[in-house]
Amino acid sequence: MAEFKHLVLVEFKPDMDVDQLLKEMERLVAQLDLVKSFVWGKDMESHEMLRQGYTHAFMMTFSSKDDFTAFISHPDHVNFSTTFSAAIVKALLLDFPVVLLAVCSVSYLNKKKRTLFFSSYFHSRKTIHKNRKETLAFEDFDMIVPILVGAVVGFLGYVHLKIRPPPSKICGSPGGPLISSPRVKLHDGRHLAYKERGVAKEEARYKIIICHGFDDSKDFYFPISEEFINENRVYILSYDRAGYGESDPNPSRSVKSEAFDIQELADKLELGPTFYLIGMSMGAYAVYSCLMHIPHRLSGAALVAPFIHYWWRCFPAELLNEAFDALLPEDQWTFRIAHYTPFLFNWWMNQKWFPSLSVLQGKLDYFGPWDLNIIKQASASANDGREKVRQQGVHECLHRDMIAGFGHWGFELNDITSQLGTNKICVHIWQGHEDKFVLYKVNRYLSKEILPWTEYHEVPEGGHLLIYDPAICEAVFKSLVS
Question: What value does the mean pLDDT of the chain take?
């Protein structure tokens, strides 16, 4: 019958007399003729983050599980357990039968050969002298096990803490942010916050839904004149995408879910059978999703500086590689992790060893003269609601947005053409030639080769923040209502 191990890792309370407890434990083991061997040790080398607070390890070896069961249930052990439990902050217990490696059949070795086998395991065979008098005792292996197990458990605990997203601060929940905007309730119980502008929807000729970009919200400022809105009877509906602002997070957020969030929002507000869409930068994937999944609900759409998914298969590889190589190294790694290992994304965005997303570090490398001028003008104007963008947690808004956007969509952009069939929708793509976030060649190719029925507008000196320029903003709206 295989030996049975009883491993205990503990953290003692700071005011406890540990030496006295250890003496009582040794006395207990000596009194009960059930324990084959007993070793213990105090951690001296492990990094504080790896050991997770555990300071001492205890290992008992029993000849069988029956001996272990008899020891655990013995009245003397039960009494000692009460005293021991009161002296510790926390404990980790592992009880397991010994499994010998099949490297060598230990059962066929006598005690002298067993000693040589385990010595060889820890020392190079070339360094063992023929007449070596001191060998590694078989029982010494018992001291290695708790150290190895403790290190593994500590490391796994550290990894789990780092990759696990922090708790969300849901709007309206106890201790969460207050709700100050109108919201609609979706079929799955989540809420979407929205903001209306323009003429009443009952009187509107054009109903346009705005999909904001990365790290933004329904409250972003777009400089469209009231004169244009009233003259063309435009109703504008902007909303907080899932996890942003005052819209509830969506743990199952995906490209597809964005389309059905928009459809349900439109239905709850009774916008009618069709509506228009404008998507900026990262918000473009919500528009692409609507074109794929609910094209019958769209009257038209505009994509302003739409972001690039660097793993699209319908583009020439050399074109996407050119766009990807133009990025800063930290952004390349951020997008790779969002695409290939999204479960590590929270860790990557919070670790301090390597730089992550450059824009969140305040770097302006991608902003040319056009964008810097826009930023200067925008900083002088009102920016209501900016403090609410990340209030439910950066993982729920920024991280999930990137994981969805750079993840697997379930379709390619060239699938949209076949999905539309004969129901052609007027779609406009607006791109700045000097945009350093999005290489203009990619969206130019998209409009010319992949979605040739779209209308492409390239602004010669324009950067990434096209929508914030009053003339460009009005031109975008005009392209939809003309």
Answer: 85
